[in-house]
Amino acid sequence: MMMFGSLGRNSRYHHHLSHHRRHDLFGTTSRIASVACISTLSSHPLHLHRKSPTYSQTILLPACFFSTPTATTPESKDASSPLTIPHAHIKAKVELRPGPIKPPIASSNSQSSRAKRLPTMSSSSQPQFQSTSSTGRLSNTVSETMKEDLKQAYIHGVLPRPPPGAGKVATLWHQAKQLFKFYFRGLKLIITHRKQVKSIRARVKAGGEPLSRWEHRFIQTNKSDLARLVPFITIVLILEEVIPLIVLYAPGMLPSTCILASQRERIDAKRREKQRAYAETMAGVFSDVLKADPIALASSLPSVSSGIALCGLLSLSTWGPNFRRRGRIERHMKTVVVDDALLVKEGMGDRLTHPELLEALEERGIVTDGLNTATLKARLRWWLTTADKTDNGSPISRRIALTARSALRQFQ
């Protein structure tokens, strides 16, 4: 029994010892593998750690712990070179440039259909480009016009020049201040003219000399200036910078005393150009006006186009329905009837200057481009002698017919 007991204990002891040996063998194997990895890394020239002398000995491991090595050549066995890092490949810098525009090829149906769609897309985006360009042209036109007006005002002594050596800000401040003074003096002049008109009317009412043509026109001009006084004061106080735009596109809003000399010349030139355009492009409409009954012209116009053509030729507004245009023409012709009587009384216009002759003929719808003073006087005499030559129709209808004849250049 004691023998069998000792044998059992010995067998358990050997079993326990073999178990510890296998455990030590596997632990040693794992440590050897990690040591091999560390020694491999430490052999690299860039490794910063010092190799430990503890693991410098060579230990053989079973083949089951390694993978099958790849096939090597004799040259690779003999050449034992240290591990090196390959140099990174530096790419050459590529310079980007736009390629040439290729012309469209019309051989394919899809390309041809795409080419057909392109004008539609471009036309849809074209108004935006035109509006932008038109806005730029408008701003350039206004600035150039304003500079030219100030230049002419400096030349004629209407406005004082900026002080020498003044900067851009000082020059702009000087211009704004002088323009404000000019407009203020013009507004004061309207009030002064109003007092003169009252004195003229008091003289006539008291039995003095009757009104002359100059006094009659002076009273009419002051009346129109008073009607424009309040809107113009509002514009000057709120937004003075839009006055150049008003001069270009709405000169009828400006009082006569608040217009520079160059601005007046530009307004007159634009009015004459518009008058000539209506006379040349609407000749057929004026022929229809001549064919109408003179008695009927006193109450109505032949067509809507005739009202537009006559208003354009007389430099009147063309907006609104036809009865509004007919009312403007009638009121304008009433002032012309009074002016004709005064001209006949003062020598058929022989004492008028060249600018006064231009103004008188343009009020009657007669184109004056390129005419000398003698021709202007002859045209005015033709009007005065023909207007009241016959009793056919009313004075207003006869003058409407004369306006149509002058547009057709029938001065016989």
Automatic annotation (TrEMBL):
This chain belongs to which protein, by name? Uncharacterized protein
Record lineage: Eukaryota, Fungi, Dikarya, Basidiomycota, Agaricomycotina
